């Protein structure tokens, strides 16, 4: 039979077409239930620990800006003055630990053992970053510091960082100018 639009209805029962349309979604859903895997296919693990102190939120990362350093200053003094920074500890519980030590982990400068190498993408060359206590005692990279006594509640670990010229770069006056960055990770050991 031909209608005005030129469409011709196929012969047969229209109910069979509806039945096929309803059957297709059921066939598509069947493989989803077959995808359910066997028992014990998710494994979770971790460790619960009791740390004596907590680093307050927002203090987990420390950024230190040395600003502009004039190369002539390094040629005359070999290093900058130490720039102060702090690691804040809160909620210290002395029943869990009475002392803390700090380790800065990173890539050591080959020309200045114990100092942190600057990152490879830095423009500056011939320099390294050193860490020290406020009394100018060196804290070599990748080496645990001396233990400091903790106090109940809040504590501050005061430290300094400085820029030092490599001996050969100072002797030959070849410190490369430009921006620099360095990255280290600090970890705390409680006893």
TrEMBL record:
Domain Fimbrial-type adhesion: 44-190
Record-level GO cellular component terms: pilus
Signal peptide: 1-36
One Gene Ontology term from the biological process aspect of the record: cell adhesion involved in single-species biofilm formation
Alphabetic keyword roster: Signal
Transmembrane segments: none
PANTHER family noted in UniProt: FIMBRIAL SUBUNIT ELFA-RELATED, MINOR FIMBRIAL SUBUNIT
Protein name, as recorded: Type 1 fimbrial protein
Organism placement in taxonomy: Bacteria, Pseudomonadati, Pseudomonadota, Gammaproteobacteria, Enterobacterales
């Amino acid at each position: 039979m031909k209608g005005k639009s030129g469409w011709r209805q196929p012969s047969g029962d229209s109910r069979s077409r509806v039945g096929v349309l309803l059957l297709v979604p059921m066939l598509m859903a069947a493989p989803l239930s077959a995808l359910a895997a066997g028992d014990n296919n998710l494994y979770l693990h971790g460790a619960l620990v009791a740390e004596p102190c907590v680093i307050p939120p927002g203090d987990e990362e420390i950024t230190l800006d040395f600003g502009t350093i004039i190369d002539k200053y390094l040629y005359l003094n070999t290093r900058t003055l130490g720039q102060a920074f702090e690691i804040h500890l809160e909620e210290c519980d002395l029943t869990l630990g009475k002392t803390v030590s700090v380790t800065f982990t990173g890539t050591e400068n080959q020309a200045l053992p114990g100092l942190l190498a600057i990152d490879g993408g830095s423009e500056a060359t011939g320099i390294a970053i050193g860490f020290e206590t406020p009394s100018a005692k060196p804290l070599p990279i990748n080496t645990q510091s001396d233990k400091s006594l903790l106090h109940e509640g809040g504590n501050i670990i005061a430290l300094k960082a400085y820029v030092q010229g490599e001996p050969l770069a100072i002797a030959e006056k070849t410190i490369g100018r430009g921006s620099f960055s360095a990255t280290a990770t600090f970890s705390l050991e409680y006893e």
